[in-house]
Amino acid sequence: MEIPYTISTRPDTGLWNAKVGIWLFLASEVMLFGGLFSAYVFLRLDAAPGTWPHGLLNVPVGTMNTAILIISSVTVVLAWAALKMRRYRAYWWYMLATITCGVIFLTVKLVYEWPQKFEHFGAYLKPEALEKYEQYLGNHRLAEKGLPPRLEITGHLENRQALRDPNIKEYEIAMDPVNADPTNPAMDRPHFLYVPPTDKIAKIEKEDVDRLTSFGPWHNTYFASYFTITGLHGLHVLGGVLVFIYMWLPVSKRLYQHNPEHLANRVEVSGLFWHFVDLVWIFVFPLFYLL
Amino acid sequence: MNNPPDISQDPSEHEEYAHNIQKHVKGYLMVGALLLAFTGITVALSYVDFGTRKANIGVAMLVATLKAGMVAAIFMHLAAEKRLIYRVLIFTAFFVLGLFWLTFLAWYNPIVR
Questions:
Q1: Architecture of domain A42-115+220-290 in CATH?
Q2: How far is A172 from chain B (nearest CA, A)?
Q3: ipTM at complex level
Q4: What is the CA radius of gyration of chain A?
Q5: Are residues B2 and B33 in the same domain?
Q6: Using the beta-carbon criterion (under 8 Å), do A77 and B28 form an inter-chain contact?
Q7: Would the CB atoms of A63 and B43 count as touching at under 8 Å?
Q8: Does residue B84 sit in helix, strand or coil?
């Protein structure tokens, strides 16, 4: 038995099966990401002053990744248009461009952005110890200007063994510029270009520290949301790339020769998914990188 | 912008059809360029001080919504889609707004307030 309306449209709805299917799926995806974004809003609204970090991520790299996703959204719609015009060669190249963009996006995330976080540490100080480390925090000045206080000292942990060895009484942190020069007005706002930690080392007594961890999802609610949302988004990018690879391989050429409209429909629905992934990133980028 | 029509079964009409799609391609390229420009604008605006952090978030979300609207309307063809799809999306919008409303209620906490 042949399944009806896989290629031609149903007279009453004007749609073929997969088109209805993908939109129902995207509706469920809206709820999935909607749940995570509302969790983000909730966590952020209730974050105490100074506990929601600003400007920890690399803005130029994030901007580049945003541009790459937008370009891939254009190439996938061009690939579909090429199929509609029965230009398989052009379709093949546009598809290759889309796959390349997806792979670059994932590589930047997995090789550059994520691993860096696990090498960066932050020590949340106990409230009563904040005054003791005022020279690294500059909170007096921030209070005068009505800005939220700094509660942690961040940078590279020089003596990693201190995490496990109870005999070591203090952490040695090569501080980020914000802690190395806390009263500089330039530090009130995040830098556009990434500035690596300085060689100025702060010695922080363990008993003054509430907790010290790397910038993993365990560090604070900001990083928990960051890793959850960008991780789920990354899985979507990976899924899209795998589907596109299948449609780019010779096996799809055979489908094209058999019925080009069938392949065009497949590219259209996977393209719809890809645009949705791009659309989610359009919100992720400002929420985590800029604001 | 309307969607390209379905391809004709008549080979003599193919050329005209291809020409028609070509016009849509130009539109897609223009929207892509606009999206890239708006990405630059989003980044630039985040370094402008609008007074409060809340105002900055509002402006950035406004630009993001505009960009998302362009992706949905043009790339995802929602500017001219069949009624059934719109019906599905109306339900989706209702439930996702309800979800954000619940989040707002949990934060605002009208019972204790």
A1: Up-down Bundle (1.20)
A2: 33
A3: 0.90
A4: 25
A5: yes
A6: yes
A7: yes
A8: helix
